[in-house]
Amino acid sequence: MDAIPSWPAFLLAVVLIAASPGPAMALVLRRAALSGFRGAVPTVLGLELGLYVWALLAAAGFAGLVAASEVAFLVLRVVGAAVLCWLGVLALRAAWRQRRAGRSGTAGAVALPRSRRGWRAGLGEGVLVQLANPKAAVFMIAFYPQFVPADRPLFATTAVLALVQVALETVLYLSLAAGVARAGAWFRRPRVRTWLEGVSGTVLVGLGLQVAVSSR
To answer: Can you tell me where the transmembrane regions are (predicted)?
Structure first.
């Protein structure tokens, strides 16, 4: 730990990265608002697991190959855009169904998911969104080398730095989820839920289209 002289700069960069709007932030906010704190936990863990995998791939040189290859980057970009758009469409469909139920007078309180299937779905959603993000590959190969001293082993040092980033981001995202979940009963009102699903679905589709047209 003492061999890395730029810890303050690294920690500040991690906080700024975690606080920036993006797919991760959108997923955490949506899960916390609609499923409560427990529903957001697996999504946060999935996002951070995906981030750590990308960090290790960057240290091993694989992320650099993805970023350098036109075909690999294009495939990952298409997959990432498809995943985000798919999640957005699911949210929009949920909003449409909720709106129809409200018109027919059958809308009721939304129960929080407690099943293992819901937990696995949240974890898988987070991992998939993170691993299918082509910008993550480019970011990792540009970000971590700045904080790895020339006399330190690249892979081991990157693994430590990534572990610190994962721990810090997990605390930040779970704190955000806990804050949002406090107003969960309000978010899960049928009319508010419909509005939230529609907004989050539109945001996710927009992020997907942004990934589709983005360049390195």
So the answer is: 6-29, 49-68, 74-96, 153-174, 195-213
- Measured over all CA atoms, what is the biggest interatomic distance in the chain, rounded to whole angstroms? 68
Q: Give percent of the chain above pLDDT 70.
A: 85
Residue 172 CA to residue 19 CA, distance in Å, equals 8
DSSP states of 82-140: HHHHHHHHHHHHHHHHHHHHHHHT---PPPPP-SHHHHHHHHHHHHHHHHT-HHHHHHH
CB atoms within 10 A of CB 198: 17
Backbone angles phi, psi at 111, to 5 degrees: -80, 145
Answer whether 0.70 is exceeded by the pTM. Answer: yes
What DSSP element (H or E) covers 68? Answer: helix 62-68
Q: Which residue has the tokens 């916390």?
A: 32
Question: What are the C-alpha distances in Å from 117 to residues 35, 46, 86, 208?
Answer: 14, 14, 19, 25
Of 171, 172, 131, 165, the residue nearest 147 (C-alpha): 165
Per-residue pLDDT of 140-197, as tens digits, reads 777 888 888 877 888 888 899 999 999 999 999 999 999 988 877 777 777 777 877 7
Neighbours of 70 (CB within 10 A): 8
How far apart, in Å, are the Cα atoms of 131 and each of 1, 67, 136, 175?
28, 13, 8, 23
